[in-house]
Amino acid sequence: MTSRRLSRRGFLGALATAAVGVSGCGSLTTERSAVPLPSRLRLPTPFTVPLAVPATAEPTRDGTYEFVQEPARVEIIPGTRTEIWGYNGVFPGPTFDVRGQQPIKVRVVNKLPVPTSTHLHGGVTPPEFDGYPTHLVVPPQLTERFEPSGAHAAHAPSAWKLTPAEFVHEFPLDQPAATLWYHDHRMDFTAPQVYRGLAGMFLVRDAVEDALPLPRGDREIPLLICDRAFGEDGSMLYPSADPSLLGTPGVTGPYHQGVEGDVILVNGAPWPQAEVAAVRYRLRILNANNARRFDLRLDPPPPSGAAFTQIGSDVGLLARPQPLDRLVLASAERADVIVDFGAYPVGTHVVLRNHLGAGTTRDVMRFHITRRARDDSAVPATLADARRLSADQAVRRRRFDFRLSGPGPHGKLWMINGQPFDPASALASPELGTTELWTLTSDFHHPVHVHLGHFQVLSRNGRTPRASDTGWKDTVDVRPYEVVQILVRFDGFRGRYVMHCHNLEHEDMAMMANIDVS
Ligand code: C2O
Ligand code: CU
Ligand code: CU
To answer: What is the CATH number of the domain that holds 135?
Structure first.
């Protein structure tokens, strides 16, 4: 095989080596899921860099959003330059702020040295615009020589769709107000491409949300939180088997359980500080980590009341607000929360901490309450009309087991129901407009994400779901040896979608399956 060709054989071969690192490992049941990747430069003192809010994406005259994926050199660690791959050269990408029921077009022009695929996570999107992993935009300099090859292409030539230079996505957005996000979804290389910067927030609004007296304007802040590690020259460190991302996929060394960096970035800044008034803020928190889980708390907690009032989940507003002292978020999960800094005296520093982190990864960011201000916002007792699904609506039951499986011809791999991802076949064919009951089981931490289908968590280990499972979701945190039941609805479009583990290293290493909505 040539290194310039995408080779399924090379991929499976790399995984066979990879599997040695995870088989029979006693740490599988612990909360810490991966070996952290250490940075090799002096890290800044926490809370010295100001929090920035990504710019809002603006459409051109004809209503199309123009996005160029390109490399850029930006200052992340003060005093050094980091090459990122960004939508419009920024990381995180610009924030979409759009309305439900108002379709948009997004032209993605690829000026990176690798193929890309762009997915709107949580979007109800026709399959041809959903960022299917083998639907790739190939940059001009690669169009001559890039072609899928190996066992992959032989089995599924029709699964590949290579578009030169650019692609125009159409997003109907026929869905309620929600905190979505967008990111790269290239077959076998999603993890390193998201890590280099290809991710951003996507906010959908509607009349139901408009009518609520929630904090808005600069009191509504998206927080895209992710870990990274940096080399001595400021470059992002990632343990790719092939750093060109054109040959063998996968990671090296002990990172097959997932890559976790030792620097926590919020909106692209290391452990930033935000100056806030002593009023309510709406924080849209996204765990954009490749692998790390969060248990986020405020330190100190407010003298009275809960730290967070959750108003929204992954894909919509909750029926009623729920008070929480901690936010447990696995990769790709979102929490839309109100924090009332008015509960603290002016002058207080409040640290957002991750209680699953240690050392440099325990702190996330800090809020400095600098002033009083008038607060006309409120959190009403009812938010949205979120209907509750019940098990008797389910027309089918299915089981999906997320597990390191094998040994097979290729050793042990991250698999679903004992099968590595095959773009040519589907694990399930739910019918459009129906509800199914899925039982998810696992051997490890697997944040399970379903494209198109939105769901509600019915039970966790036979008991009522936990607080952070509330509401309509697209990703659920399945912990080692847990049994999680979800009621999933397929509405919107027929066609081939994927479900996968959103630990991006697991996703790249085969933990994905086709779902054909018929
Ligand atoms: Cu957030 Cu299939 O992805
Ligand atoms: Cu998705
Ligand atoms: Cu996983």
So the answer is: 2.60.40.420
Closest ligand relative to 257 C-alpha: 3
Digitized pLDDT (tens) for each residue of the chain, 518 residues in all? 333 333 443 444 444 344 333 333 333 334 445 678 999 999 999 999 999 999 999 999 888 999 999 999 999 999 999 999 999 999 999 999 999 999 999 999 999 999 999 999 999 999 999 999 999 999 988 887 776 654 455 557 788 899 999 999 999 999 999 999 999 999 999 999 999 999 999 999 999 999 999 999 999 999 999 999 999 999 999 999 999 999 888 898 789 899 999 999 999 999 999 999 999 999 999 999 999 999 999 999 999 999 999 999 999 999 999 999 999 999 999 999 999 999 999 999 999 999 999 999 999 999 999 999 999 999 999 999 878 999 999 999 999 999 998 776 556 789 999 999 999 999 999 999 999 999 999 999 999 999 999 999 999 999 999 999 999 999 999 999 999 999 999 999 999 999 999 999 999 999 999 999 99
CA distances from 516 to 77, 433, 453, 502 (A): 44, 13, 11, 19
Range of the domain at 342: 217-371
- Please give the Cα distance from 436 to 440 (Å, whole number): 13
Tell me which of 309, 342, 371 is where a domain ends: 371
Which residues crowd ion ligand 2, with CB under 5 Å? 121, 451
Cis peptide before 92 (omega within 30 of 0): yes
| Residue 380 in domain | no
186 lines ligand 1 (CB under 6 A): no
Contact present, 346 and 371 (Cβ < 8 Å): yes
Which atom of ligand 1 is least distant from the CA of 183? 1
**Domain presence at residue 470:** yes
Pairing of strands 273-277, 308-312: unpaired
In a shared domain, residues 358 and 452 = no
What spacing in Å lies between the alpha carbon of 273 and ligand 2's midpoint? 30
HSE at residue 252, side-chain half, CA atoms within 13 A, is: 8
The ligand 1 atom at the shortest distance from the C-alpha of residue 500 is: 2
Q: Are residues 346 and 239 in the same domain?
A: yes
Kindly report the protein residue whose alpha carbon is nearest to atom 3 of ligand 1.
Answer: 121
Residue 440 lies inside a defined structural domain of this protein = yes
Beta carbons of 221 and 284 less than 8 angstroms apart: yes
Same domain? 366 vs 413:
no
447 alpha carbon to ligand 3 midpoint, in Å?
6
Residues 81 and 191 in one domain: yes
- Please report which ligand is nearest the Cα atom of 499: 1
**Helix, strand, or coil (residue 140):** helix
